[in-house]
Amino acid sequence: MTMFGSQWFAAPDTTYTINQSARFNNGDSAYLNRTPGSAGNRRTWTWSGWVKRTTLGSRYMFGAVNTGTDSIGFASTDLLTIGFNNANDGVLQTTRLFRDVGAWYHIVVAVDTTESTATNRIRLYVNGVEETDFSTDTAPAEDYDTGVNNTVQQTVGSLSAPSGYLDGYLAEVHLIDGSQLTAASFGETNSDTGQWIPKAYSGSYGTNGFYLKFQDSSSLGDDSSGNGNDFTSNNLAAADQMSDSPTNNFWTLNPLDSGATISDGNLKNGGGSSTNTHAPALPTTGKWYWEVVCTDINTGTAGAHFFGICNAAVYQSEDFTAHATISAGQQRGGQLKKNNSNTSTGTAVNDGNTVGMAFDADNLTLKLYVDGSQSGSTITSLTAGTYKLWIQDGSTVTNMTVNFGQSDFDQTVPTGYSSLCTNNLPDPQVENPSKYFHTQLYTGDGSSGNSITNNAQAGDFQPDLLIIAPRSNGDHHNVWDAVRGNTKRIRTNAADTEYTDSPALITFESDGFDLDTTDINYNGSSRTYCAWQWSTDGASAATNTDGSRDSSVMVNTTHGFSIVAYTGDGSGDDTYGHGLGATPGLIWCKNLDAAQNWRVFNQGLTSGAANSLFLNLNNAESADPDRISAVSSTTFTAAANMNKAEDYIAYCWAPVPGYSAFGNYEGNSNADGTFIYTEFRPAWITVKTMDSANDWVIYDTKRDPINVSDTVLRMDSTNSEYSGSGREIDILSNGFKMRTSNTTINASATFAYMAFAEFPFKYANAR
Fold first, then answer.
1. 21-237, which class in CATH?
2. Would you kindly state where each structural domain of the chain is located, as residue ranges?
3. CATH superfamily name and code, 255-424
4. Quick check: 370 and 322 in contact, CB under 8 A?
5. Helices (H) and strands (E) in the chain, counts
6. pLDDT value, residue 339
7. How far is 111 from 725, CA to CA, in rounded Å?
8. E-assigned strand segments in 162-298
9. What are phi and psi of 119, to 5 degrees?
10. What sign results for the dihedral spanned by CA atoms 437, 440, 446, 451?
11. 192: helix, coil or strand?
């Protein structure tokens, strides 16, 4: 048995580390309970804990007997709820939906019923930020005595009944008896990454305070505060101590991308008829190992079970046989398959066997092992792309338990391979995305010289590409860039030529931009606006000679962004250097001298560079002679009318793992929609159906700081901002999830998307 060791488990990145958590399974009725011997302060207390959700719905983290029950937990609607006496004596319920199962939330509930101001009696913090938006906000009466710290049953992982058992992980649970504290007592913002991270609590606990570290697997209810306020463990086993923690987040199966019933901390696939279960996207570099243990297997269905990987774009209801070029793995009977063709025959998988999978993302190979011996030949020459774990069960009885390294492996880990956890991920190329992409919301004041200062986490932020979109009033989305200068303006929703403004409407500043206009479309009094900004981090425009014709390029290769100005010659196709040093995944290109549609190249186009999308139109993807007809690591080719003897501007992005992603996904016309993995928590997402006429819709986490995200602007339209109307998505720690069957974003069709990060997954909290 391979123990946690340096050969496969990397050292944590943070100063303060949490090494373990406790897994609570609803199916086991697992919880901790304690009844204090004497009462403490029932009016003033603070509860702090880190939670990773698994099964959604009505689940509770903490409870105490009162006349009814005092509780902290999630309602059936996934709203976080703090209630006293079954909500009869006060309740605080969020507007935010807590549906992220890929990472950890930090939750702090701070109570002081002696406060004369009602809104101060219950204070809630999520990931270090105080919540201010509530669907229900009814304060308890002044000097109200809660059940917390009373001489009645207190529970962790359930209501005090007990009932409403938690399905998920808890870590670093504190109760402070007698103090109303802020989140800053338990966490802090990492100055490099911007992530909210734990820190050691250094204050007192009071009479009935406790600290659950879950450090003793044989006694998970032990109190580490020094008070000796130990809890009794109920239906928790030593195996429920996990190394999954807020400072080292492990992969788990994703119930938001599964057709099966998942349990045991999202590690057990409960089977079902032809069900598919996926896990988050695998890293695109490095060597990775995980295991699947099979129990109750139906040996009469040798070809029905599949263990392997598939392209990350495959959605939950799709069968692996439908994908000829994007899957690899082994069937139960031992047949190894790539691209739905047999490659060799290995060892059959029977009841109790452990299937090990070793994926080499650098060399695109997959090895399978059964009980420690390699099964069949290594699957080689996999199609380049992003993959995810895929297990398929064609039986109603098979159970498959996956271990990504949060428990000891059964088999010896192949040399050079690592477990799937955030500490083992390589440091991202872009550690803090806010240095390079930022959304700024502002309100116009109707005066020339209105200074818009970016409140980016990274501090100063000078935009080199700026798009201003009116929110409260309908008008064009105007575009400026540092190559053309601040007097030159084009519009994303129009085919018209470049405008020259004299005087300039904006001025680029080191920490934002100044509005040198009173125009209502940019700076109308009391009107609201959105500014999306990309930076090249101080680059200057320079001549690029990589193509058949020269271009002028401002570029930052670290985050894969360049602004390319070129002049065509009208003699046929020409190539132009983009300076990225990598193949672009996205190009927006506009003729500046003629009324001509924007051309969009996206690496997710179904016919590659033979087709185009049009940024200013809602048209479907179509064959286009006037297009970006080819891309390479050094140049792009401008064809036909994209190479007239006129001036052009092109905005080019190469995908950077953990920072930007461009591609396509298949919608499923279902409110339980497609999950799109990005390898980061997005800050900005644009979606366009490629099969039909529908708008380019834009989401960002400034206009929608909480889930569900449904506030939309449209790249191709002059319409003002709107929300709801069936455009709901969840923006999550490792991608986004469609929550609607609306045809604009989730029809049974193919969609192009482009996304930029708020946090790489390595540093992402649950959202």
1. mainly beta
2. 21-237, 255-424, 437-528, 542-577+589-653, 660-763
3. SPRY domain (2.60.120.920)
4. no
5. 2, 60
6. 85
7. 37
8. 168-177, 187-189, 196-198, 210-212, 232-234, 241-242, 262-263, 268-269, 275-281, 287-295
9. -70, -10
10. negative
11. coil
d(C-alpha 503, C-alpha 376), whole Å: 71
Residue 22 corresponds to which tokens in the numbers above? 């406790």
Query: Sign of dihedral through CA atoms 410, 415, 420, 421?
Result: positive
Residue 493 zone, left/alpha/beta (φ > 0; ψ -120 to 50; rest): alpha
The reply to whether 21-237 and 255-424 are identical in fold is yes
Q: Angle at the Cα of 460 (from 444 to 529), degrees rounded to 5?
A: 20
**In angstroms, rounded to a whole number, what is the distance separating the alpha carbons of residues 667 and 675?**
9
Tokens of 61: 């983290």
State which H helix or E strand residue 3 sits in: none
Strand residue runs (E) in 609-679: 611-612, 622-623, 628-631, 635-638, 647-653, 660-666, 675-677
Which residues, 6 or more positions from 465, have their beta carbon under 8 angstroms from its beta carbon? 479, 480, 481, 482, 533, 534, 561, 563, 651
Decide if 316 contacts 295 (C-beta within 8 A). Answer: no
pLDDT of res. 398: 73
Name the one residue in this structure whose structure tokens are 């966490």. 187
> Is residue 254 within a helix (H) or strand (E), and if so which, with residue range?
none
| Phi, psi (degrees; rounded to nearest 5) at 521 | -75, -10
- The one-letter code for the residue type at 572 is G
Q: Per-block average pLDDT, block size 10, for the chain (767 residues)?
A: 36 74 96 98 98 96 95 97 96 97 98 97 98 96 97 96 95 98 97 94 97 97 98 97 98 91 91 74 96 78 75 69 69 88 92 95 97 96 90 74 96 97 96 94 94 74 95 94 97 96 94 94 95 95 98 97 97 95 97 97 79 94 91 96 96 97 92 94 97 95 96 94 89 97 94 97 97
For tokens 């009071």, what's the residue? 206
Dihedral, CA of residue 616, residue 618, residue 619 and residue 622, to nearest 10: 60
Global pTM reads 0.94
Q: What is the rounded CA–CA span in Å between residue 641 and residue 638?
A: 8
Please answer whether residues 665 and 751 qualify as being in contact, where contact means their C-beta atoms are separated by less than 8 angstroms: yes
